[in-house]
Amino acid sequence: MIYFVIVIYNKYLNNSDSFQSVVENLGDNKIVVIDNSDKPFFLSRNKNDVDSHIAYIQNGLNLGLSRSYNKALKYIGRNSFSDNNYICWLDDDTVLDKSFFKVLSSETRRHYDVIVPKIIGQDGVIYSPNEKGFLKNRLVLNRKSGEINPKKFNAINSCLTVKTSIYRDYVYDERLFLDQVDQLFFDSIRSRRLTYRILNVQIEQNFSQREKKLDKTYLTRFAIRTKDMIEYGKISPCSSMPTAYLKNLLLGLYFSVKISDFSFLKVSIKSLMHPLTVEGGHD
């Protein structure tokens, strides 16, 4: 069985591309929806739109990804954490066709520990899976002979499918609100002797930061990202505070140059001096 987990924030569930895709291809699997909406009209409508066979959990506020994922794990329950069950983590805006579900179902029967599709951005670049790097992950699948070293395997949360037995002794670190959640997960499991499977399926996804024209509306989202990057530097066994500070500043500089405005760099510098308390925001 596959548990498809979808986290939404201030959005009508029926407007979620991921939700609609899963409903149309559910089969004998289950859907778990974590609703982090903090606006009553979304909560009311979403509650009325779900069927009884869908696990729907309202929070009334934005818990972020880590806490939401842990809520999903708690709901699924440790009794279901076996080598035969999987969790597929989904963004709310990913369009998935029948081929993804067909191939995923087939590969779960081969009992891989971690299964991922190829995630391709709006610029045609394969961003996930990739290899863990120092300041920047290596996008090796864009090379003709690209092959990922299992000891450096890394991927993003979108469509990440994990055998539930792995969660018997792993919970998501709730100090991370939205970003670096997937990075820390892989940092924590790479030392295990796990099997990875890359599906011969490409999933298209739009990444905010990859837009050709990035404006100041991304600043709030970036402020959350800088906070999580610093926190990640504190807690990851594969990072450090100096690395987090450097990456933070370089990313702020990159975005500032991109829009010819130093707003992003200012956010980076401010985050180093005044850690951000996150109360909202979701991408």
From TrEMBL:
A Pfam cross-reference name: Glycos_transf_2
Tagged with keyword Transferase: yes
Top-level taxonomic group: Bacteria
Gene3D superfamilies: Spore Coat Polysaccharide Biosynthesis Protein SpsA, Chain A (3.90.550.10)
Keywords recorded for this protein, A-Z: Transferase
GO molecular function, one term: transferase activity
Alphabetized InterPro entries for the sequence: Glyco_trans_2-like, Nucleotide-diphossugar_trans
Record's keyword annotation contains Transferase: yes
Domain annotation Glycosyltransferase 2-like: ranges: 4-166
Protein name per the record: Putative glycosyl transferase
Organism: Oenococcus kitaharae DSM 17330
Organism lineage: Bacteria, Bacillati, Bacillota, Bacilli, Lactobacillales
